[in-house]
Amino acid sequence: MDVTAIIKKHLYVINLPENDKAIIVNLTASLLYFSYFCLAYFSLHIPAALEVTNAHYLYLTEVVSLASIFGLFVLLLLILYFRKVNPQSTLPSNIQLYVIFQPLAPLAVFNGIPQLITGLLLGILPLLGLILFNRKHVFYVTCIMWVEIVGLAVAVSSRLLPNAPLYVDQVKPAQVPLSFLLVQILMSAPIAAVVYAMGHSLMQGIVLRENKILELSRRDGLTGLWNRRYLNEVLEHEIALTHRNLYCLSILILDLDFFKKVNDTFGHHAGDKVLLATAEVLLKCARTTDYVGRFGGEEFIIILPNCDARMSVEVAERYRKCLEAKEIIVDGQRIPVTGSFGVTTMLPTNTCQYNMQVCLDDLINSADKALYDAKENGRNCVKYRTLNENVQVAL
Prior knowledge:
Largest sheet: 5 strands, mixed
Helix content: 55-70%
Number of helices: 14
Strand content: 5-15%
């Protein structure tokens, strides 16, 4: 997987799926532990470094770092597997969130607990988690980290664990009193809480704003229906599902009859009211699984997942009758509104399944041809064409 391509595709990491974010963090943490390994490895081969460090704990740092990298590699394989078979699963990323920084605990003991109490573990890491992962889990992980740090601090102060054993006696810090460590913890607790609260509020605001912007970018400005760009994305997704799950996919294209005459006779404000009324009718008649959108001008498109030929024609006929029955009054005058419907169905055996763009274009072109048949047949009717001209469909 090309992580650089993912980052380039999305301006903000927060926009990535959770498993993609987990992959990026996994690789970043692997580099962190690799840097610890390199530091320990080169220190073992530098005489000046060995004068102030304990070779045994340098070796242990190498072991912890390599074990961490191996564990992260296993997690990476798990994330990639779930990303392929179940992209919506958050289990691998949650597992990683709880275990990815655990190796820092022994490394903190090697270097000296007091150095990290108000630093990386209690400040930067929770903030990083807020940016990337579910905030509830970040809170739990932060609490676990606090308990671990306090426990390690008590163990060091009680001489159950050595204080900064990586360094020789001449340079390592003196044994730190428990009271001093507890004061540090109590002083850092409000700061960590404020950092967490501010990060939570900031990320919540960013997510809400981005979701709003994303929603607006997918909607038609006048009717509020899905716009053409988003409908193309939906069609690509549904085409892939059609071939994977072996069910039918239908679409219908609606073109309002004599819409130009409405604009010329009653004005463009009346045309806008007709478009809004049409959108209202389509949404009211739509099934919960349908995607209703405006394709441009007076054209509308409805995507019907898991809908065969017979059912799609029945659905289109229901839309047509609802639209015909709709009363639209503008300046005291009733404007009759009808539509011509072109319907087509994709069968999962189509050969175009191997070329997504060709498949999408063929599907829309087939519906357009059916729409042309409806107009040639006097308008205000439903006409059907199968995507595969060699397949006979009984309606």
